[in-house]
Design goal:
Blueprint (H helix, E strand, L loop, with lengths): L26 H21 L4 E3 L9 E5 L3 E12 L3 E6 L7 E8 L1 E7 L5 E7 L1 H13 L14 E3 H11 L5
Antiparallel strand pairs: 1-2, 2-3, 3-6, 4-5, 5-8, 6-7
The protein binds zinc ion.
The site of zinc ion has 5 residues, from helix 2.
Length: 174
């Protein structure tokens, strides 16, 4: 088990275009997936949020994601092959800037083609929460951060401030 430090906003590695994995089922790839899983679960225990992590967030430039929503899933070389025209607007957050919330738009549904660590190809159809999570993580392997997708610069805020404003106004949606 190996919990790795999560890189923070400003680290240039978060801006790298990651490279495709060419060899599957290797000890090295399995070790990366294990580290992603351990780091995600540790982060979630300590911070109370977190459903996915991308390899560049632990300083590895391979196109690998690990998510844990309805169970653990490792995605190697993920690619969005279809996206809905319909968009959703939401507040997003990220391990790499854990105190911030950013309002952005994502496609309501997508289809993602990926390989598992053994090299088998899969097609995942996702909608809503899973779709936005996958778009967030796939952005990471392209060096794109949620902040880049903010609807505007006024919608990058401290989470604590957002929560305070929600309490004061009694509104669920801001
Ligand atoms: Zn992130």
């Amino acid at each position: 088990m190996s919990i790795r430090p999560v890189l923070l906003l400003g680290n240039p590695l978060l801006r790298s275009l990651c490279v495709r994995v060419r060899q599957y089922n290797t000890p090295d790839l399995r070790a990366l997936v294990r580290d992603l899983a351990d780091t995600l679960h540790d982060f979630r225990r300590r911070n109370g949020f977190g459903r996915g992590i991308a390899a560049p967030q632990i300083g590895d430039k391979r196109r690998v994601l690990f998510i844990d929503v309805d169970g653990p899933l490792a995605l190697v070389n993920p690619e969005i092959v279809r996206s809905s025209r319909q968009m959703m607007t939401l507040w997003d957050d990220c391990f790499s800037f854990p105190e911030l919330a950013v309002k952005l738009k994502r496609h309501l549904s997508i289809e993602v083609r990926y390989r598992d660590p053994e090299g088998k190809e899969h097609l995942l159809k996702a909608r809503g929460a899973l779709a936005e999570l996958l778009q967030h993580e796939i952005d990471h392997v392209n060096g794109i951060l949620a902040l880049d997708r903010a609807v505007d610069s006024k919608h990058i805020v401290y989470k604590s401030e957002l929560e305070r404003l929600k309490r004061v106004s009694g509104r669920k949606e801001m």
